Amino acid sequence: MTALETEDEILWDMVNNCISILGFEDAVVYLVDEKKVYLEQKAAIGPKNPRGKEIINALKIKIGEGITGQVAATGLPIIIEDTRNHPSYIQDDAFRLSEIAVPILLEGKVIGVIDSENSQANYFTNQHLKILLAVASIYAGRIAHLRALKTIKETEFERWKIQQKASRLQMEALSSQLSPHFVFNSLNAIQHYILLEDKRKSLRFLSVFGKLLRYFMSQIHEESVNVSQELQMLDWYLQLQKLRYETKLSYAISEGNLKDHLNAKIPAIIVQSLLENLLEEHISQSNGNSEIEISFHISPTEVKFNVLINYLLPESNSTNPSSYFKSLTPWEEFVKLLNEIRPFEIKSQVFEKSAPDSNSSLKSVQLIFPNLATA
């Protein structure tokens, strides 16, 4: 047998090179559809096949109905000596008096039916039945091989897509953490203290900036990070943002019950992305001070990361987000990508409301990570 690339080619090979040798008036091969509801005619010889690989008026028969439908439902072959005695008989292109139908089985399940009819009653014999069962078994093996190859290709393609998403996530994370905008603003703020000849603050913030950059670079290829390290990173990051925004920003970080779970780990990237998104979305539009509170609550199985930002609403509703904020990858996108490429099942909850008696607004975001220290 030559290599056949599709199931249709295999079925046409079956009828043309095997079943045709038996000299049947008619033969049709059915396959079960994807929803496993109907049998569909896929190949034929005789009046149903006037030329090439054409089937005239290809039927769809519901599984359980007619002779072929019963064979598909039970998985058992059948010989009908006289169709006039079987009210379940379904006429196709012409009424014929005898019929034989055998299942095509794959791993114990019916995937198709070989059916043949003849104008003579009592035409089909047990020898015909044995031959068709053998043909069905041989070609079921070929279909199994083809489906296995298809599954392998699909698996490889899915693995490739996951690798592409992982590479995209890594590049976007690096772009976010080491964005020219962040680097420039940090260095510009440090330069301000250098020009003021405030050596203490200049050296302090240069040290913080260097530590933050080293941390980002060290985490590029890491899938998970210690919560304690992320807490330190957040403090460095907010120190630099405080340097930039001065009195417009105040923050507080609580380590919660970290001392009870020093080995707690969470997926990388997300925490800094969320914080930067919230800052750039709200503080640049705020009509005054913005307050940020950060906390972690850790259990053996999960880590809850909470960010609360309280900011004054702008006097005008026409204030638009900054161009830099628009260029940021939304933190929700990072969460979605991570959940797609890894079985993290990171969850998020967002709550926002404006205070009824003031012009301030409160936004709370909670991310629930798996504690990867237990993974």
In short:
The protein is of the alpha+beta class and 375 residues long. Helix content is 42%, strand content 24%. The protein has two domains: 7-153, 2-Layer Sandwich (Beta-Lactamase); 178-374, Heat Shock Protein 90.
What do these coordinates show?
This protein is an alpha+beta fold and 375 residues long. It has two domains: 147 residues, Beta-Lactamase, CATH 3.30.450; 197 residues, Heat Shock Protein 90 (2-Layer Sandwich), CATH 3.30.565. 42% of the residues lie in helices and 24% in strands. The strands form three sheets. The protein has a six-stranded antiparallel beta sheet with strand order 3-2-1-6-5-4, with helices on both faces. β1 and β2 form a beta hairpin. α1 packs antiparallel against α3, α4 crosses α6 and α5 packs across α6. The radius of gyration is 35 Å and the shape is rod-shaped. The two termini are 50 Å apart. The model has no long low-confidence stretch (mean pLDDT 85).
The 3D shape can be described as rod-shaped
Tell me the major beta sheet.
Answer: 6 strands, antiparallel
Q: What's the CATH C level of the largest domain?
A: Alpha Beta
Give the DSSP E fraction (strand runs of 2 or more residues): 15-25%
Instruction: Compute the separation of the termini in Å.
Output: 50 Å
The largest beta-sheet arranges its strands as: 3-2-1-6-5-4
CATH topology of the largest domain: Heat Shock Protein 90
